[in-house]
Write a structure and sequence with these properties.
Blueprint lengths: L1 E10 L2 E6 L5 E5 L6 H13 L18 E10 L4 E10 L2 E6 L2 E2 L3 H5 L4 E4 L5 H4 L2 H15 L3 H19 L7 H38 L7 E5 L9 H11 L1 H7 L10 E5 L11 H23 L4 E4 L2 H4 L2 H13 L4 E5 L14 E6 L2 E4 L3
Parallel strand pairs: 3-12, 3-13, 8-11, 11-12
Antiparallel strand pairs: 1-2, 1-4, 4-5, 5-6, 6-7, 9-10, 13-14
Length: 367
């Protein structure tokens, strides 16, 4: 898949802007505060409703305006099918359209466009809390595993119901029924995640060998979020929920289950993540994201869109060149922002599309 055109209205400093990116590598150049990251943010929003920059969602809307709008025309392989996707936000919340028609849920829109982002805060995938690592796995499952969404929704519903019952002075007998549902859906969710992690590992090892060979092979450990026993996953989780019920009632929430899951990487020179330098963390995260893109393409037969914010500042020249060489080898559309065009002038792989961003305006860049 790729974005054939992108229109932005009333997003941060942009009043109106339009870009027709190339199929391969696209470079956006501009000074600090010029708006180049906002262009990348628009792509991320269109794919997930989530900004990688964080902050209050209503702050996304241009000052003095009541609504922002993002519209993209997508080309989907292999038949080059064209799809128009639109996302807007006002004080009433989000609204979405596909080919001009309203959609009932944002999920329907987000299934149309898969985007992976590498940006200055991406090191949280290694150094941050477990929610970042769960989101990494669930992003892939959302797009490649048809059974994931209904299982995830049923699990979340059961979790909300159990948490509500835990807040009662004396939980009703229905808590056992909700624990059974939580265990059934949680076991399936865990199997999805572990299968995807297993699929990722060969490609991850190859990507790590490309970018940071000094770490050697990686070992991956997945913690499902509860203490497993020598019984079926469903029975193990159900037992864990029953044992923890009194403690959970005191705390007011469920402390066992896939919503508490985590995973970790271990290398012989760095058996724990705290032993990685910040530079090594960035390269490991980059390897994880590119391996994710390869695995996605192997399953879906098409590549996700790659967004790499301020890449020349995040990587040294050697690893920047390696990244661009890899991008040049694969049929993925990518977007890279940089403060200066010369940062990419000496590498062997040149961007196909080059744009200059200045105070909410986008124009062609010649160099």
């Amino acid at each position: 898949m790729r974005i054939a055109s992108l229109q932005i209205e009333n997003l941060r400093i942009f009043e109106h802007a339009r870009i027709e990116p190339a199929a391969g590598i696209n470079l956006l150049v501009g000074g600090n505060g010029a708006g180049k990251t906002t262009v990348l943010e628009a792509i991320a929003l269109l794919s997930s409703g989530r900004s990688f920059r964080g902050g209050v969602r209503d702050a996304l809307i241009r000052r003095g305006q009541s609504e922002l709008r993002i519209y993209g025309e997508l080309l989907v392989e292999p038949e080059e099918r064209r799809t128009g996707v639109g996302l807007s936000r006002s004080l009433r919340g989000w609204a979405a359209r596909i080919d001009g028609q309203p959609v009932e849920t944002l999920t329907r829109l987000f299934l149309e466009l898969a985007v992976l982002c590498f940006e200055p805060g991406s090191h949280a995938l290694i150094s941050g809390g477990s929610e970042h690592r769960r989101r990494y796995l669930d992003w892939a499952l959302f797009h490649v595993e048809p059974g994931f969404i209904p299982v995830w929704r049923r699990y979340q519903r059961a979790l909300r119901q159990r948490n509500a019952l835990l807040k009662q002075e004396k939980p009703s007998e229905t808590i056992e029924a909700w624990e059974a549902e939580l265990a059934d859906q949680g076991a399936q969710l865990t199997r999805f995640r572990e299968r995807w992690m297993h699929r990722l590992q060969p490609g991850l090892n190859a990507m790590l060998e490309r970018f940071i060979p000094e770490l050697g092979p990686v070992s991956v450990r997945h913690s499902p979020g509860w203490s497993r026993s020598d019984v079926a996953e469903e029975d193990s989780l159900r037992q864990s929920l029953r044992v923890a019920r009194a403690r959970d009632q005191l705390l007011g929430h469920t402390t066992s289950g896939p919503h508490r899951a985590d995973w970790s990487l271990s290398f012989v020179p760095a058996p724990v993540r705290e032993m990685l330098s910040r530079g090594q963390e960035k390269l490991v995260v980059l390897s994880l994201l590119l391996a994710q893109a390869e695995a996605f393409a192997a399953v879906r037969g098409q590549w996700p869109v790659l967004v790499l914010d301020d890449l020349p500042s995040e990587l040294d020249p050697v690893h920047l060149a390696k990244t661009l060489d890899w991008l040049g080898e694969v049929p993925a559309q990518s977007f890279i922002s940089s403060t200066v065009a010369p940062a990419l002038a000496q590498v062997s792989t040149r961007p196909s599309g080059r744009f200059h961003v200045e105070q909410g305006q986008i124009g062609a860049l010649l160099y």
